[in-house]
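Dear colleague,

Thank you for sharing your sequence with our group. We've completed the structure prediction you requested, and as agreed, I am returning the results in plain text so they can be pasted directly into your records. Please verify that the sequence below matches your submission; if there's any discrepancy, let me know and we will rerun it promptly.
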Amino acid sequence: MIHIEGLWAGYGGLDILRGVDLRVERGSVNCIVGPNGAGKSTVLKTISGLLRPRRGSIVIDGADLGGTPPATVLHAGVVQVPQKNALFAKLTVRDNVLMGGYIHRRRSKDLERRYGQLAEQFPLLGERPDAPAGSLSGGQRRTVEFARALMLEPKVVLLDEPTLGLDPLSLGIVRDSVLALHAGGVTVLMVEQNVRFGLALADRATVMSAGRVVLTGTAAEIRDKPDLMDVFFGAARPGERAVPERTP
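Please find the predicted structure tokens below.
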């Protein structure tokens, strides 16, 4: 589904990504992990068109999207959920989710139908449609962000640090939301600083360091390499909790 080859990109003339190669299979959950400054979030920004690559190619579902503007990437079926504070706090849950279909705003009946479908997938949408987004817990806000990303029925969802700043109780909500994306057939590429959480959810994982991919494999293979985990990530940090293993 995603084929990145020889990707170089950065900010202000400084290259953060230095020849990244990455493949993500259709319908999988792939987690990018690595130390701070490895370039993980920069990969997502470059895929979504927020950052223009200097060299290399980004092919998604057969279409070369490298260097195209965000609107083109969005129309190609690729959406991104930012790290945090991505909701309009004073708007309702319903209005925030409907904003995800803004490019089809004139097709109001289709958007209402899609909202109803998502409410079955994410019960919060049906239980609290009129609640201001600012009144929700961290995990609930993430649920609304995921639902908004799905309004256009995307092929690919990019998740940038979905557990950032969340309390332990909210981790379960995020877990369920990611699994709901996967169950719906969406290809998920996730950047996660909470390594154990991300690897517990993913099918495959990519380890980055200093702007390069240094290892790829199944999430279980990478999680079970104690030397690798110690070198790149050290001991589990406070609040860095894993989630139960995915079931087949």
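Summary note from our side: Residues 168-183 form the longest helix (16 residues).

Kind regards,
the structure core
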